[in-house]
């Protein structure tokens, strides 16, 4: 309708909304302020817009600035412009690539598990069965549990090598108990994070299922379509949009998973569970290397933005409906 | 929906067995997913020795862990921090967001949609990307390990979602009512306080609840910006990760208290949660 009528313009919205063009944005707002309504709108929106603008520009600007500086809190005499030194060091450091790999593995596996699982569970919980409401509520509960609690409950009570429920279960079946966090560290993290996010996918997809046209399903059934055909040709296409929203939102959060790693493995053993977020944390708050951590931060921001562009475009399209 | 199925004769016959299978399957999966939470709640009522013994549902429940958690670590202090930070940031966010959402819904300009999208885009900034500057700023102005610091961060973190949700609720409100109020000579302030806010109170409440939930469970900033004084429950629970702190029954009791209120709020606000978390992209 207005500035975001088509996808291509949605992208323009995104770019023009970026910090770098914030000045232009403010100018435009001022131009529209000539009308009385515009002025009122401006004054009402000013607090929210100003705060968010500051929240975005100041730390982001500082991160970018620091990333080109020699700046280590432990070595106050070493200062000055570093050029691309931090990036060069970081990009040639095997730890970064290992962290990137860990990040991608973590995001990838959790996405596969939660999206596939969430879709199947959404179909299941959409069926009629006894006391479905309570079963649904139980199944989405893990999403509301704070990350430090879920990680510690899994680490101690579920996955503990001698006293955990899983160890007990394995022993009752005559299998050797597994020391999850030392033999399968990343898998353990993936399990914990999936347990938290599967309910999220389920919640969103279940909501989307509710707008599925039952008559269409019934008609297909009358025409002799089996459950599989109905799933692949009606349900899945209907859920397509919701699934992509789930993928994008999960990606934004999963790219910087932190608390779960912090309380379980502290990134180890070795670098086995150090993702990008944890690596930056080590550099910033444990090694006090501000410059290097900032360069890592810039890389994390770039990664997140690649995902975000698609999400924002999608929401932009939705605003027109 | 049930009647719909029954109208097809072919399904009437298979319905009871189908129902039974679906019920069994649905409930087993739901219980498996819920099990860690259930187990945690049960463990909280065990003694420390029973907590690390072979898993068992049969035990004599005791409240000693709950008492110990309060007596030894001062649980209440952390809980109070969580309450102050979650509600403080939510109130502040609502206060800033209501005028903004009002303007977008009732006085839209060409730029309203662009502004909304831009606000959404600020949510895409990964916290770890700005950890360093925020940490340094907080250190320099003395906001490290203070509730005020966390309130500021959480307000800004949730502001886009709060504006976005309020906007959708305000937009759904019939314009005639506001129009009628204006005809009767109501000023903008009167219009907002006597018409808009009372009429959209359920929407404002669920927006607030979502913001409380998100702040309560936030663990990146709370772990990095607080140490003891202002540490909320997320950070307090994390302190159980040290090897000497492995008291499962106490961890469970503390965790149960920490998640119970939010779990209940979450159950109540599922629908609005979807709306808020997906920025209206899934209805």
Please describe what this structure looks like:
The complex is a heterodimer of chains A (321) and B (283). The N terminus of chain A is likely disordered. Chain A is 74% helix and 0% strand. The N and C termini of chain A lie close together (10 Å). With 321 residues, chain A is an all-alpha fold. Chain A is globular and about 75 Å long. Chain A has two domains: 61 residues, no CATH class; 233 residues, MetI-like fold (Orthogonal Bundle), CATH 1.10.3720.10. By secondary structure, chain B is an all-alpha fold. Chain B folds into two domains: 64 residues, no CATH class; 203 residues, MetI-like fold (Orthogonal Bundle), CATH 1.10.3720. Chain B contains 15 helices and no strands. The radius of gyration of chain B is 24 Å and the shape is globular. The two termini of chain B are 20 Å apart.
Number of strands of chain A: 0
SS-based structural class of chain B? mainly alpha
Q: Unreliable stretches of chain A, pLDDT < 50, 5 or more residues? A: 1-34
Radius of gyration of chain A: 24 Å
Mean pLDDT metric of chain A: 80
- CATH fold node name of the largest domain in chain A: MetI-like fold
Computed CA radius of gyration of chain B, to the nearest angstrom? 24 Å
Termini separation of chain B comes to 20 Å
How many domain regions of chain B? 2
- Overall, the morphology of chain B is globular
Level-2 CATH architecture of the largest domain in chain B: Orthogonal Bundle
Please tell me the CATH architecture of the largest domain in chain A by its name. Answer: Orthogonal Bundle
What is the string of helix and strand elements of chain A? HHHHHHHHHHHHHHH
**Biggest chain-to-chain interface with counts:** A-B, 117 and 107 residues
**Please, how many helices of chain B?**
15
CATH class group of the largest domain in chain B: Mainly Alpha
State the end-to-end distance of chain A.
10 Å
Largest sheet of chain A: none
Please state the average pLDDT score of chain B. 83
What is the beta-strand fraction of chain A? under 5%
